[in-house]
């Protein structure tokens, strides 16, 4: 009798061990699948599987708020649409403005970053306003869509930025996005735009793309378009006042695995 009880006990222990092993294997397998399919949100300090030379592409880049981007490369500081700047930095060598809406052209914030010799690149509706800030005429370059320019050693082109079915950003306004070339790396600040043919045809290494919807493309529209464009890095912007951080997360999660989504902090 005792021998039978012992045999039964051994069998029960064996069965329990097998069940536990199977459960753990299923758990590990599910974790692997989750890690494989779940797109990780990255910041500029996160190590990626890109080569180090690609990681250097994102060094010196910050998002102040909304679409306000600061790039510091080779001892020069470039701003796109400075907005909600904290403190008086007065460190801008170049300021690029995409259009005249308050969250892109803010004179109070421009004054916080501009210096006496800051060079401005602006759309035609902003020329007189910028000069009224005391900027010398030689330091103001007025641009229109579909142009190529060079300031000092910075080459750039202007891309039309507009809405297709909305009236907030009409094509006739001649507002733009910028593709700037820094040491052979192309950075594309889209500006406020829907997914247009001109937008989709841009070749770049890094794209700063609006994802908040309402006034621009949505996060899903942006992700689908960027997947076709195939930049190395994609940075969601324009979700600070219209939209939310959820839009940024959705955008990053919608990117293909060969594109690194970067949420700047």
UniProtKB/TrEMBL annotation:
Source taxon at top rank: Bacteria
Annotated keywords: Membrane, Transmembrane, Transmembrane helix
Entry keyword RNA-binding: no
PROSITE patterns: PROKAR_LIPOPROTEIN
Official protein name in the record: MBL fold metallo-hydrolase
Pfam families registered for this protein in UniProt: Lactamase_B_3
Membrane-spanning segments: 6-26
